[in-house]
Design a protein that fits this description.
Blueprint (H helix, E strand, L loop, with lengths): L1 E2 L2 E9 H14 L2 E3 L6 H5 L4 E2 L5 H18 L8 H5 L3 E3 L1 H9 L1 H35 L18 E8 L4 H10 L3 E7 L4 E8 L3 H10 L3 E2 L9 H29 L3 H22 L2 E2 L3 E9 L3 H9 L4 E5 L12 E2 L8 H7 L10 H16 L2 H17 L5 H20 L6 H5 L4 H7 L8 H29 L3 H25 L5 H10 L1 H10 L6 H14 L2 H7 L2 H25 L5 H37 L21 E3 L2
Length: 654
Amino acid sequence: MAIAQMEKLIIVSHRTQASELLEALQREGICHILNAEEAMVSKDFPELGTTAERPKDVEELLNRIAKSIAFLKTYAESAKSLTSVLSPRAVINEQRYDEVIRQGRELLMIVEQCEQIEATIEKAKAESENLRGTLEMLEPWAALQTPVEEIGRLRQTTCLAGLLPPRQVEQVEEKIGELSGAIQQIAAAANKCACLVVCLNVNINDVQKLLRSVEFEPVTFDPMTGTIVELISEHSKKLDHAKEQLQDQYDKAALLSENLLELQILYDHYENLLNREQAKSTAPATEQTILLEGWVKKGDYPRLEKTVSTFQASSLSKIEPAEDEEIPVEIENKNYIRPFEVITRLYGMPQHFEVDPTVFLAPFFALFFALCLTDAGYGLVIIALMVFFIKKIQGDKKLMWMLVICSAATVVAGALTGGWFGDAIQQFIPPLKPLRTKMMWFDPFEKPMRFFGLALALGYVQIMAGLLIAFVHNLKRKQYIAGLCDQFTLLVMLNSIAIFAASKAEVLPIEIGKFFGILAIIPAAVILLFSQRQGGWASRIGMGAYNLFSTIFYVGDVLSYIRLMALGMVTAGLAMAINVMAKIALDIPYGIGVVAMILVLVGGHGFNIAINALGAFVHTLRLQYAEFFPKFFIGGGRKFEPLNKEYKHIYIKP
């Protein structure tokens, strides 16, 4: 339940062992390695260089394998199911992985075949498109019996072939006649007419000008020879042949797709190799050695020491970090708190000198989520869904486990407020009413002010908890003045004002209220005089006055927690409306009512769960980020990212 302690280290390795050492470090996955720009040894010894050998061959090979995988996926037969979506990576064991890696050269031949087939397919597709275009161009001229090569062999006249809009044919025919020419329609279609225009050579410029004005589209048959019918037959045969070639290549691609898994394994292998080579190429180096500077969690240092000791030409040493050096951060929590790390990581890692907020936000997040739903039935449904996803999904399951915990709290909150799919018990299962009543604490619709007060009280408690966390953390860091002037004064003043207000509302005795009302003056004075501790006294008091005035914003912070009540009431109200609609549907005769009622209940409550669970998550998240974290948490720390093996396409069973 804290930020992991880090050890700064440096590993010196001879170039001949550097690759093997990096592979061992990657397999362990515990060492965060710095590049030459980040490493302090490069700043202390500017004469150090890097290997400067970018692994272009590995990058190029990886790119080729990726393209082959994308190509074969198009032709692989794979059933798309919910299970395949949740578990997209193929599950294999280490023996299978090693077998595929040993077949690397054979698989690279498959990559070459994929490239050849893909190129052939693209060529065949382009040829097919060209042939289809040619056939579309020839089709309107099918009635032309004259061989196309003879159209341009006239000496004294010029013959132009082209397409005209039907509405323009008569107009052109009349004007062409005036220019001692003629026009012949070969075929007419819905929007174009195939025509031959003949004119004397001396009038060609005038004729062309006329044709341009009437949207004439010239058609050329060069370098074709023969009649149109012969050309259509010839090109149709070529198109059929191109289609056969294309289908043949499709079949070859489908056959090669049986090796898709092997290529995916090979891709992940080379991607991990690339990561190692990049770490090696960017590390500080001398002519004979590679210097790997980095970080390891203190508890993992013995493992790292054992790993490095197996390499005779490598040594490991601890070094002191620089004063201004940014230390990478990793958070560690108990199993029941770890799922809530999702919230912290989504916001940003704490800095190395801060406190990990996960353990503090966890109970609040679960409770607030539960109050936003306040329905035991909905909580049970979400738990069932999350358990299913946990069993089926691959990768990190923290979010699902967090929702299980939050939904368990929702079941409790729903039982205490009487929410079981809204008022489904009252509407459809009356015998269970006594049991529901026995478990209830209060009904939000009968006593909304109790829910209102509960939301405000929880908000007040969380805000005070944030200030208390900051105060204790400052004491641990021996920043006593900051703790006293920045948090302790606020804790005393805000609580004193709260007690004074409670006495005015006759909740507490007036004498107690007067005492705390006077007591609030002392921290207010400290805030005025010492909350700003830099600059001259004028600026200090000015900023102190602003800080004192800003305490009024804590009222707004507390009021923002009313959203807990609002969302809880909305969820319950919509659930009750769905039950009413279902009961109305039940009255439909001829047995249709039962089916309609089931559809309304399942669809309505399913929608209500989805939309309000999302709302509960988002608004609870907002309360943590906007109201709770600013009281004690800054964030922006650098994440601890050890060199480890990552797999995009496969999942190796341990």
